[in-house]
Amino acid sequence: MKLITRETDYALRAICFIARHKEGAVSAAELVERLKIPRPFLRKLLQTLGKRGMLCSHKGQGGGFSLAKATDKIFLIDLIRIFQGRFSLNECLFKKRACPNIKTCGLRKKIKNIENYVIRELNSISIGSLLKKG
Q1: Mean pLDDT, to the nearest integer, of 67-90?
Q2: CA angle at residue 133 from 15 to 8, to 5 degrees?
Q3: First-to-last CA distance in the chain?
Q4: Given its phi and psi angles, is residue 3 left (phi above 0), alpha (psi -120 to 50 degrees) or beta?
Q5: How buried is 63 (Cβ within 10 angstroms: 0-12 exposed, 13-18 middle, 19+ buried)?
Q6: Which of 7, 31, 92, 128 could bridge 72 with an S-S bond, Cβ 3.0-4.6 Å?
Q7: So where are the chain's domains?
Q8: Is 108:102 a contact under the CB 8 Å cutoff?
Q9: Phi, psi for 106 (deg, rounded to 5)
Q10: How do residues 88-104 score in pLDDT, each as one tens digit?
Q11: In CATH, what number does 6-87+127-133 get?
């Protein structure tokens, strides 16, 4: 299990780069060059981030991408949900069906507590907090 996939990692890098860039929009070409992310892959990520309200796109001369929200309003859990779906440590599946012990399983309760803790922590990590540490 990966906590953060390649898509989420690249999206996080792109958003942090855009947030640090104070002189207007950042072009896709600059992001490709500076972050070494394959162009087709990056374009797909940027489109998704735009559709989900994280980025604004600007056309024409000097166009590119800028943040649609303040850095303290974009959280790591938002990116995980956009690119990975609902965060879950355990699906409690057995042969593609819900485990028959789901209501009585002591391990499930422990894992659910861990999952809730991880979600709380991910909810506390904003782009702004990452930029202050970096």
Answers
A1: 93
A2: 35
A3: 26
A4: alpha
A5: middle
A6: 128
A7: 6-87+127-133
A8: yes
A9: -70, -35
A10: 887 777 677 777 777 88
A11: 1.10.10.10
Cβ atoms of residues 94 and 100 within 8 Å: yes
Q: Does residue 28 sit in helix, strand or coil? A: helix
SS3 133: helix
Its pTM stands at 0.86
Three-class SS state of 1: coil
By residue count, the chain amounts to 134
Identity at 52, one-letter amino acid code = R
CA distances from 11 to 71, 95, 106, 121 (A): 14, 33, 36, 19
d(CA 52, CA 56): 10
Compute the average pLDDT of residues 106-124: 91
Q: Is 39's pLDDT higher than 60?
A: yes
What lies within 8 Å, CB to CB, of 90 at 6+ separation is 108, 111, 112, 115
- Picking from 68, 102, 99, the residue whose alpha carbon sits closest to that of residue 82 is 68
pLDDT above 80 for 2: no
